[in-house]
């Protein structure tokens, strides 16, 4: 997409914004203000806060299939996709109550076409003609997020946080920008609950936001940022706790624009500090010092869809062996350890240790590409607080360290101060 269509807009409201009828009415007033301003609007909605968890619990309560019937998440998707269907219908009804022409569109009606990986489907295509015609006809299109349909007509869901991805996909199909309304008023230099001096960023590059999302920031789902970057969809993160004035005009919305790096004139060396407690460290002690041993380990993990992040290999006390340490998400740790234990004889190691009392702290910024001394500042700030790191991983625009979980918040505050982010 070259330049977004300024007459069209996709707006997305999350579960907190859809939490009850009064919040749905507030969202409807915000949508109505954009319509009054002359925009052709599509709205993507999440389920009411907590509703998806309830629906998932119901599917768990139904039990597993009997012997001889294959395990599949296709009916799971039918159940959990219903939460967004409810809020889409309620928002459309509320908009009509305000005098705004509106209609809900299910994922299969647009259609939002996905692969058949039920429970974690990926979007293949979103034809924009039908919904675009509805917008051009003066109707607000309300779309349930999180859901799609396979090419043979089965309902799918996109995984937790999938409504963000739905919204960006619809915006790409319509050739316009995407406003994500949530319970925060933008992207901050770090979590304000940890550091009171955190500052809201006016602009963040796609690359920075992708790193932030994958490293612990909860503002946007990682896949939505990937899609926005691939399709060059401008995304703005805004607070849903705003109100149009008496004339139905929205106040200055502020927020944070997620955009191409070239649109950011002043590139900060570091834009943010993130923290993730969803980490586990796994160590294979006494691993045979063969050139193919690490490949054997990580091939088995990859085949089981276990994502690995940090990797450290060190010498063991026993001659001819090494210690191999890697990190993975805490939810994958038990499965990864089970895989390793089951293949211990084939891989060739003495002992496995799993530590879930760890956290990953990261600094992120596109300015790292052209500035030296970023790592030195990080390690000096941690050393001054007596914080030891257990592993490191880097990219062009981020440095991550694994530390004891007890020091995570201290590390975030120290790094936020060390890079002067309170003055952004």
Task: Describe the structure in brief.
The chain is α/β, with parallel strands linked by helices.
Question: How are the secondary structure elements laid out?
Answer:
Elements: E1 8-13, H1 21-36, E2 40-45, H2 51-61, H3 74-80, H4 82-97, E3 102-104, E4 113-114, E5 123-125, H5 129-136, E6 140-144, E7 147-149, E8 155-157, H6 162-174, E9 177-182, E10 203-205, H7 206-214, H8 222-231, E11 235-239, E12 256-259, E13 272-276, E14 279-288, H9 293-303, E15 308-315, E16 321-329, H10 330-342, H11 344-347, E17 351-355, E18 358-364, H12 374-384, E19 389-395, E20 398-404, H13 408-418
Parallel strand pairs: 1-2, 1-9, 2-6, 3-6, 9-11, 10-12
Antiparallel strand pairs: 4-5, 7-8, 11-12, 13-18, 14-16, 14-17, 15-16, 18-20, 19-20
Report what the structure shows.
This protein is of the alpha/beta class and 424 residues long. Helix content is 33%, strand content 25%. It has helices spanning 21-36, 51-61, 74-80, 82-97, 129-136, 162-174, 206-214, 222-231, 293-303, 330-342, 344-347, 374-384, 408-418; strands spanning 8-13, 40-45, 102-104, 113-114, 123-125, 140-144, 147-149, 155-157, 177-182, 203-205, 235-239, 256-259, 272-276, 279-288, 308-315, 321-329, 351-355, 358-364, 389-395, 398-404. The strands form 5 sheets. Strands 3-6-2-1-9-11-12-10 form an 8-stranded mixed beta sheet, sandwiched between helices. It has a 4-stranded antiparallel beta sheet with strand order 13-18-20-19, sandwiched between helices. The chain has a 4-stranded antiparallel beta sheet with strand order 15-16-14-17, covered by helices on one side. Helix 1 crosses helix 4 (82-97), helix 6 (162-174) packs parallel to helix 8 and helix 7 (206-214) packs antiparallel against helix 8. The radius of gyration is 24 Å and the shape is globular. The protein starts with 7 loop residues before the first strand and ends in a 6-residue tail after the last helix. The mean pLDDT is 93.
């Amino acid at each position: 997409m070259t330049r977004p269509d300024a007459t069209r807009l996709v707006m997305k409201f999350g579960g907190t914004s859809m939490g009850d009828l009064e919040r749905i009415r507030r969202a409807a007033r915000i949508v109505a203000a954009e319509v009054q301003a002359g925009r052709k609007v599509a709205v993507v909605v999440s389920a009411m806060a907590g509703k998806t968890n309830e629906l998932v619990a119901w599917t768990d309560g139904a039990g597993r299939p009997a012997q001889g019937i294959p395990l599949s998440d296709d009916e799971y998707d039918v159940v959990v996709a219903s939460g967004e269907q409810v809020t889409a219908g309620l928002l459309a009804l509320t908009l009509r109550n305000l005098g705004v022409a509106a209609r809900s569109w299910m994922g299969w009606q647009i259609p939002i076409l996905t692969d058949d990986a039920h429970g974690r489907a990926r979007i293949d295509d979103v034809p924009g003609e039908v919904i675009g015609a509805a917008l051009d006809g003066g109707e607000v299109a309300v779309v349930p997020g999180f859901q799609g349909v396979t090419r043979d007509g089965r309902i799918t869901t996109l995984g937790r946080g999938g409504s963000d991805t739905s919204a960006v996909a619809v915006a790409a199909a319509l050739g316009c920008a995407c406003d994500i309304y949530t319970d925060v008023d933008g992207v901050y230099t770090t979590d304000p609950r940890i550091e009171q001096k955190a500052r809201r960023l006016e602009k963040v590059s796609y690359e920075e936001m992708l790193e932030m999302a994958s490293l612990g920031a909860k503002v946007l789902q990682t896949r939505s940022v990937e899609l926005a970057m691939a399709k060059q969809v401008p995304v703005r993160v805004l607070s849903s706790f705003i109100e149009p004035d008496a004339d139905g005009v929205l106040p200055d919305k502020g927020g944070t624009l997620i955009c191409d790096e070239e649109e950011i004139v002043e590139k900060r060396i570091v834009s943010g500090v993130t923290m993730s407690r969803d980490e586990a460290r796994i160590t294979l002690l006494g691993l045979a010092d063969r050139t193919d041993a690490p490949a054997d380990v990580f091939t088995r993990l990859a085949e089981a869809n276990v994502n690995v992040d940090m990797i450290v290999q060190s010498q063991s006390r026993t001659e001819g062996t090494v210690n191999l340490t890697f990190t993975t998400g805490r939810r994958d740790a038990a499965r990864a350890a089970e895989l390793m234990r089951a293949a211990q004889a084939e891989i060739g190691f003495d002992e496995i240790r799993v530590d879930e009392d760890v956290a990953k702290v990261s600094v992120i910024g596109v300015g790292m590409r052209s500035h030296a001394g970023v790592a030195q500042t990080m390690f000096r700030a941690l050393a001054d607080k007596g914080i030891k790191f257990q592993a490191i991983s880097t990219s062009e625009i981020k440095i991550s360290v694994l530390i004891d979980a007890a020091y995570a918040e201290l590390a975030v505050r120290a790094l936020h101060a060390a890079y002067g982010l309170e003055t952004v």
